[in-house]
Amino acid sequence: MSHVLACIDGSPSAAAVCDCAAWASRTLGAPLTFLHVLDQRRYPASGDLSGTLGLGSREYLLEELAALDEKRAKLALEQGRILLEAACDRIRQTVPYAGSRQRHGDLVETLRELEDDFRLLVIGRQGEGSGMLRQHIGSNLESVVRTLSRPILVTTESFTAPRSVMLAFDGSTTARKGVAMLAASPLFASLPIHLVMVEADTPENRAQLEAAGEGLRSVGFRVELAIRMGEVEPTLHAYQEEKGVDLVVMGAYGHSRIRQFFVGSITTAMIRASRTPLLLLR
C-alpha cells in the first residue's frame, strides 16, 4: 500500500492527472504507477456474434464483424500503451520512476483488485466519454468513490500545486479521522489549512472546531477556523473562492449534512462546481 496510482485515458484531463499524480508522488515520497483500463463494454474481449444474427448466408457478415471488433480492440490497446508511455515521459524529469499497468475489464473492479497496492488514487473528473462540457463528470467516478476505501484525489482539467487547503469539518468520526490524516501526512505539511464547518455557530460546534484546529497546530500547521451557515456545497465553494483555497478535502461518509455528499445530489454538485482538485477521504 505504498504507491500513488493514477488512472489515465484519452480524456482532456489526462495531462492534469499526470501533473497531479507527479506532485503527490514527490510530496509523499511514494512510487507512481499509471493505470489504463480498456473498458470491456466498449471493447469486449470476445468477438462471438453468432447469437445476434444467426448462421447460414450471414456467416460472412459475422466473420467481418468479428474481425472488425478484434481490430478495434487491438487499436484501443495500442492507444492505451501510447497513452501510458506519454504519461511516463511527461513526468520523467520530476519523478524518479513511474511504472505503468494496462488491464482489460471494468475500471471499478480493477481498482478494487489493486486497492491493497496503493495509498492514494488520482483520477480525472471527466473520462474520455464524458464530453467536452466542464459540468459533466465521468460515469465511473461515483462508483469508484463508493467502492474504494483509499483516499481519492479528483483533478479538474488543469493542475497547479496547491498553496492552501480547506477541510470540510462536521465533527463526525470521518471528519476527525480526516484531521488526523492531514496531521500525519506529508502531503500538505507546509500549507495553511482552513477548517470550515457548515453548521450553526453554537458553543458545542465551536469547541469541536477549536479542538480539531489545535490538533493541527500542535504539529506545526497554520490553521484558520470558520463556521458558516447555509447549504453545504455553495457555502463551501463560496468560502473557497473568498479565501483563494487551492484544494478541498472532504470525508466521503460523515454523520451530519456532509453525509449527503455521497448519498444525494451534493456529490455531483460539489464535483461539478469545483475549479480545483478535491481530495476525498474514507
Offer a few descriptive terms.
282 residues; Universal stress protein; Rossmann fold; 10-stranded mixed sheet; Universal_stress_UspA; 2 domains; 9 helices; alpha/beta; elongated
Walk me through this protein's architecture.
The chain has a ten-stranded mixed beta sheet, sandwiched between helices. The protein has 282 residues and is of the alpha/beta class. It has two domains: 121 residues, HUPs (Rossmann fold), CATH 3.40.50; 117 residues, HUPs (Rossmann fold, 3-Layer(aba) Sandwich). The two termini are 15 Å apart. It has nine helices and ten strands. About 4% of the residues have low confidence. Strand 7, helix 7 and strand 8 form a beta-alpha-beta unit. The longest helix is centred in the N-terminal third of the chain and has 33 residues. This is Universal stress protein. Pfam families: Usp (PF00582). Belongs to the universal stress protein A family.
Number of helices: 9
Which radius of gyration do the C-alpha atoms yield? 21 Å
The count of strands amounts to 10
Please tell me what the overall shape is. elongated
Order of helices and strands: EHEHHEHEHEEHEHEHEHE
Helix percent band: 40-55%
CATH topology of the largest domain, by name, is: Rossmann fold
Sheet of most strands: 10 strands, mixed
Unreliable sequence segments:
253-264
Strand-pairing-aware structural class: alpha/beta
Percent of residues in beta strands? 15-25%
CATH superfamily of the largest domain: HUPs
Average pLDDT, to the nearest integer?
A: 82
End-to-end Cα distance, whole Å, is 15 Å
CATH class wording of the largest domain: Alpha Beta
- Major sheet: arrangement of strands: 3-2-1-4-5-10-9-6-7-8
Number of domains: 2
CATH architecture tag of the largest domain:
3-Layer(aba) Sandwich
Pfam families: Usp (PF00582)
Protein name: Universal stress protein
InterPro entries: Universal_stress_UspA (IPR006015), UspA (IPR006016)
Family: Belongs to the universal stress protein A family.
